[in-house]
Amino acid sequence: MWPGERAGTPVPLWVNHQDTVTSAPLTRGQAAAAAWTTAAMTAGTLSLLCLAAWKGSVRVLDHHRYAQWDAEWSQVEPRWSKRLPS
């Protein structure tokens, strides 16, 4: 009730499943805004997770590729360098 209301004036009252007074439900606009915000945050987070997974995979694969390159070079380089003129 607001001050100055007449007795008997209808007042909207919202209660939850436990019959305690609660705030009014969201309007259609508020629900849409909340949905769009959630969708945008989910899309952004998912994009960042995919980017992090891709970058991490590239880093791991590069590490293994460089290790394999070093192992092969350590076998080939001694034979190869002996063929170069001194």
Q: What does this 3D model show about the protein?
A:
By secondary structure, the protein is mainly α. The protein contains 1 helix and 2 strands; from the N terminus they run ββα. The chain has one helix at residues 28-82, and strands spanning 14-15, 21-22. It has a two-stranded antiparallel ribbon with strand order 1-2. Strand 1 and strand 2 (21-22) form a beta hairpin.
Helix proportion: 55-70%
Which H/E pattern describes the elements?
Answer: EEH
Low-confidence stretches: none
End-to-end C-alpha gap: 101 Å
Radius of gyration: 34 Å
Features:
86 residues; mainly alpha; 2 strands; 64% helix
How are the SSEs ordered, and which strands pair?
Elements: E1 14-15, E2 21-22, H1 28-82
Write a compact overview of the structure shown.
The protein is mainly α and about 90 residues long. The chain is built from 1 helix and 2 strands; from the N terminus they run E-E-H.
